Amino acid sequence: QINSATGVITPWYPVFAYKCPNGRMLEQEVHNELEFLGARLNKKREGFYTSSEDARKIIERLGSKYQNQLNEKD
């Protein structure tokens, strides 16, 4: 989806990967959190203004509830 109409605003490169059995749900939760924090750049696009470190912390905090699901599959 990154190349779709809501995709990349500026050049980017990955700095963190997070394994999650329900990535779509986690993505939505992360977007909602960043929206709540006022980090969205444009309401019609997926861009957010935040540091990589803050994004990582949000992803790990919100994603932690999915880790039990991941561990059960292993």
What does this structure look like?
By secondary structure, this protein is an all-alpha fold. Helices cover 49% and strands 0% of the residues. It is built from two helices and no strands. It has helices at residues 23-36, 52-73. Helix 1 (23-36) runs antiparallel to helix 2. The longest helix has 22 residues, at 52-73. The radius of gyration is 13 Å and the shape is globular. The relative contact order is 0.20.
Question: Would you kindly provide a brief summary of this structure?
Answer:
With 74 residues, the chain is mainly α.
Average residue-wise pLDDT? 84
Distance between the termini: 28 Å
Alpha-beta content class: mainly alpha
Low-pLDDT windows of residues: none
Oligomer kind: single chain
Helix content: 40-55%
Using the alpha-carbon principal axes, give the shape: globular
Feature tags:
single chain, 74 residues, mainly alpha, globular
Question: How is this fold's topology laid out?
Answer:
Blueprint: H1 23-36, H2 52-73
Helix pairs in contact: 1-2
